[in-house]
Amino acid sequence: MNSKVALITGGASGIGKATALLLARQGVKVVISGRREALGQAVVREIKAEGFETAFVIGDVNSEASVRQQIEFAVNKYGRLDLAVNNAGIANETKTIGESDPAKFQAMVQTNVMGLYLCMKWEIEQMLKTGGGSIVNLASIAGLNGISYAGPYAATKHAVVGLTKSGALDYATRNIRINAVAPGAVKTDIIEQQLALGQFDEAYVSAMHPMARMGRPDEIANGIVWLLSDQASFVTGHILNIDGGFQAK
User: Which residues are registered as beta bridge partners of 239?
Assistant: First the structure.
């Protein structure tokens, strides 16, 4: 994937960081965006120390102006946008629907649905200018199943699946492939925050997966990078389960 340019939202930690490292090692020029500049710049230093090209831009997917600015930054710096990983997302509650907080649900809708939609909209516009591209969205096992104590979050991730499949159909003949990954529970900031809320512990979450463990960020990144690559040239509208066997149950 030499000479290609990628944008990764929420790229300063977890799955986003693992994907940035893997893409950079394949010769992709990687732009990382996120709200946490210190973390983002630390990832940039790590990638540059290995001799690869990367940059960080402050970005918030909740703002359409910020989304457009992130894409413009990538294009101004590297000349184009070929690949995008829409990884930014939040999970702020583990409660039953009856006990849940509408304001927290609204926040998840804004980031996980509207934020991802805005990223797709403007990434697609840019990719059409240069002949196409490949987009991978972050869905979840919660986008394909009901998950106890996670109804609002699951609703937002079901929306990600709908946007992915519909977008893939919209652009199937215009050389833009749009896919998603549906990870199981992965050791990232989000899962740590959910565990801290006290509804689950790591043993409980691990036991949900037939492999009896949580995933690692690099295991999800491997699937993302494959979907982005020309090796997946006949794959669009696909939701790739990377979930330790969860969907096989």
Answer: 180
Closest CA to 86 of 103, 99, 105, 67: 67
Distance of CA 136 to the CA centre of its chain: 7
Do residues 176 and 125 lie in contact, with contact meaning Cβ atoms separated by under 8 Å?
Answer: no
Residue 16's domain comprises: 5-248
Q: Report the domain count for the chain.
A: 1
Map tokens 């149950």 to a residue.
Answer: 249
Neighbours of 124 (CB within 10 A): 20
- The catalytic residues are 153
Record the tokens describing residue 242, joined without a space.
């990377």
Q: Which residue has the tokens 């893939």?
A: 168
Q: Is 65 helix (H, G, I), strand (E, B) or coil?
A: helix
Phi and psi at residue 216, to the nearest 5°: -110, 150
Closest by Cα among 25, 18, 17, 84 to 51: 25
CATH number of the domain bearing residue 116? 3.40.50.720
User: How do residues 69-126 score in pLDDT, each as one tens digit?
Assistant: 999 999 999 999 999 999 999 999 989 999 999 999 999 999 999 999 999 999 999 9
CA angle centred on 92, ends 16 and 42, rounded to 5°: 30
For the stretch 181-232, pLDDT in tens is: 999 999 877 777 777 776 678 888 899 999 999 999 999 999 999 999 999 9
